[in-house]
Records
---
Amino acid sequence: MARLVMKFGGTSVADLDRIRNVAQHVKREVDAGHEVAVVVSAMSGKTNELVGWCKEAAALHDAREYDAVVASGEQVTAGLLAIVLEGIGVNARSWQGWQLPITTSNAHGAARILSINGDELIKRFKERGEVAVIAGFQGVHKDTGRITTLGRGGSDTSAVAVAAAIQASRCDIYTDVDGVYTTDPRMVPRARRLPKIAYEEMLEFASLGAKVLQVRSVELGMVHNVRIFVRSSFDKPGDIDPHAEPPGTLICGEEEIVEQQVVTGIAFSKDEAQISLRRIADKPGVAAAIFGPLADASINVDMIVQNVSGDGQTTDLTFTVPAADYERAADVLAKARKAVGYERLDGATDVAKVSVIGVGMRSHAGVAARAFKALAERKINIRAITTSEIKFSLLIDAEYTELAVRTLHSLYELDKG
Ligand code: ADP
Ligand code: ASP
Ligand code: MG
């Protein structure tokens, strides 16, 4: 007997037929004798619709009310799944974040989980054999009692946090792909499924654009040593051999991966914007005058490149911000113009960041140099570069994203088994 968390994303619960399919997956594990907590997302498209309504109601709305609205999607799915489970003879009940409770910080719209009370769930597993169906993505702020949400994709984080709280032996993330691939299989059909990937690499994948897992879920998994297994919800529950290893990807410690490649995969993000400040005085304190106000406005700055201006006297500074924050960033910088003393602000939102990831890069030189050459041969211009121990990222024109990803995928022989 094992204790499992099973998480089902939006496409896996998109309609009642899919919810019935999910219920069969849950029944399969219950029949195998396992204790099960299920975490569900809102039905596919629902959260977008709810977010859209908030924006339509008022462009500048109260984040607490936004959370009250968008958390409702998961409430519906949790209730529906519990009803369907009861209907097929599986003892189940739904839980909303505030009922467990799942307490969080009060950063509405992007709250962090602080604690989860798993005792009641464990008691009910033991005493009633009851399946817990938990609404993902939501929690409650302890002091104010207000509903919070965890940021887009946050049900993954709910699932891993529940797994840690009930000491589950595994957290299965059921989604619309059967694992983590060398790159997004929707863009590159020749991408290959990775049997295992190290937490550190998965963190990079997630933070650099691969939306298969929310970044915080990987962070939590790493800290609490939760075994996260990404697998498909579209496999027919009846076809799954309970004694065989199902297809999927295990996120685990680096030491568990025997055959480590230099490059594990490629991630990309089109949600980037570039800002270049031209002809800034080259003197101490200027960087602080630029990045201080941006930080105060909670705008994340990513790639930063500084180079000498055309006049040889001043400097140009280029950096990226999330595309959604571009207007705000430009506004903050316009206000700081006097203090910074730049001549001109050039911006671009039609840019993309392509990143190459692999823990093997720690011990191999020249990995990035090969990429620069391959992209140059395709006439793809690189606007900015950042590197760290296990990844490097390139900022390019968005129209070349697919070409760049495919080029790098072949260059590092990721399409070969
Ligand atoms: P869910 O609704 O189940 O949470 P998501 O849409 O959030 O699912 O995440 C799954 C999607 O992530 C896939 O459909 C796929 O297009 C995308 N994805 C991006 N990069 C990768 C990758 N490297 N491996 C697998 N899927 C990826
Ligand atoms: N429903 C939320 C979203 O669409 C959370 C999730 O699906 O993980 O972002
Ligand atoms: Mg998701």
---
Amino acid sequence: MNAQLLRETARILLADAKGLLAMDESNPTCNRRFAKLGIPQTVEARRAYRELIVTTPGLGESISGAILYDETIREQTKDGTPFLKVLADAGIIPGIKVDTGAKDLAAHPGEKITEGLDGLRERLQEYFQMGARFAKWRAVIVIGDGLPSRSCIEANAHALARYAALCQEAGLVPMVEPEVLMDGAHSLERCRQVTEEVLRNVFIQLNCQRVMLEGIILKPNMILPGLACPRPQEVKEVAAGEQQFQVKLIDRQPEEEADVNAVADVTVKSLWRTVPAAVPGIAFLSGGQSAELASARLNMMNHRYKAQLPWAVTFSFARAIQQPALEIWQGKDANLLAAQKALVHRAHCNRDARRGEYTSAMA
Ligand code: 13P
């Protein structure tokens, strides 16, 4: 294992208040997002969209690394320039998603195990030769009635650690991504409990597999209430007669309700308890939060706690950087420049959030 190369790659990926851009959607996920906007689900549309991303002027000012998908790492711009060269010219380090997806975990209804260890050593060698210097593996943890099970957490943590050790052997910095999903009716507190349990297990397994913590980047979820968490309701009494009162319940959106300050506090405190100081950086996934909320929450963590944090706290967002641009592009050449402008704007907002200097007025 080349420890110096791993440390240096991690250092560059985390330097200068930059963050990472996840553009490693699998073809089915990319097609699903295209379908929602009426964009054709073709190889050429996917290539054109990814060309839009990698050729965005100024992207390298706030993005240090881009996570690619197997299809994308081999692609070229319309004029024949490999995406890898376009990224290198922009000062962006290429990374690669190497898991082969989350599949049903046998005997555990509703739970997933991430696959992709078979043949991984050889695939990593090929990606390293192509120029990739970091990789990503995403484990998925569902919160539900009686979920997650201990066996699901342990199986996914073990797979993440086996992957991470293989990456380091091949000279790639592993991004270790245990994602506790936002789907569900759970509370912020339940998400905290589960996320802490998952992270504890992940670090036990990483140590067990002899992964060098100085040469990884952790990619966790922020701690958030579930999307279907019962909405806080305001009770308002409305006079409906002399002595009669009617009770009116007003729904509010749980995501917006979850106060930016509370999310920042709970998330940082949980990470303090569970992530060793040897880890150089934590780069959050966005997980389905709006672009603005993801930036605001990242900003608050850095604004309040940056001076006390042992690790860099940055972003590795996909949807929270790409979604506004994708909605503007809609598969049309005429919208390309406006979409690129939106993309680089979100990237810069997150660089400001990493400094703790983002304000929603920027959005
Ligand atoms: P989101 O930011 O859209 O959650 O994606 C990050 C990612 O890499 C998912 O694996």
